[in-house]
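mind reviewing these tokens:
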Amino acid sequence: MTTHETYDVVILGSGPAGLQAGIHAARKNVRTLMLGRMDNSSLYWAHIENYCCQFKVSGEEVLNTGREQVEAFGGEFRDEDVLSIDPEGSLFSIRLESGDTVLSKTVILATGSSRNKLGVPGEKELLGKGVSYCVDCDAGFYRGQIVAVAGSRSAAAGGAVALTRFASEVHLYCDKLDVADGLRRQLDETGVVLHEGVQITEIRGETGVDAVALDDTTTRAVSGVFIELGAKGVLELTATLGVTLDESMKYIDTDKKQRTNIPGIFAAGDICGPPLQMAKAVGEGCVAGIEAANYAKKLTHGS
């Protein structure tokens, strides 16, 4: 595993909140790194009609322009997802899907709030009874049991690797695995059984999950199904940090400076709650970028 030089500000998420934070942080002349895949943002696939001074423009175009702005001010990008964030002294250690680790004085969480559903029979009915969207939250309930993971990106693969520390067997189902080589090697090394090209079509059970039906007409007996469709979400990334969530356990609580309850951790955009609109995300990203940069400077030079 490679540890890179320390950054002042690391931003998780390349949507409108993350990009605006990146613009303002980079303009304050602090070393800024943006992480995440732009097409993970819900805005990437949208068309914009209700944002001031932009009318009938594609989300992809807006995000690409934002990336150009961040880079023009000296910000850096790595188009990969984050697997974990952990305190390391006065810094934060951020592990990437490639196997690399970066250190940062501050972190801005701007990953959005969507939790993609598998959309199969039994998913809703068995939620909390064997169906989970958070490996870090629920893995410990499946010691010595057989579990299934659904998803093709880093959250699914990283979750499957983590589950091998608890479950007796871990089966990962996906259309086509789309992760960095380092994470794919971890799947092999930890014994995850990869079923590429096979999808879960139904989750079965009465009082709890007992099997999944697959689109190759077979079934597999499992005790749990972890649905991880996309990048790591708010629950997973904050599980080891102690970041306070709201009563719904969906959104992060912040103050007017976009600070969380953990010094050095900021949040912006949909991850902070509704309205889930680009205008709100950009405004919060602006504040978070400025405040995180100021915080990093104080750590460097003293208050």
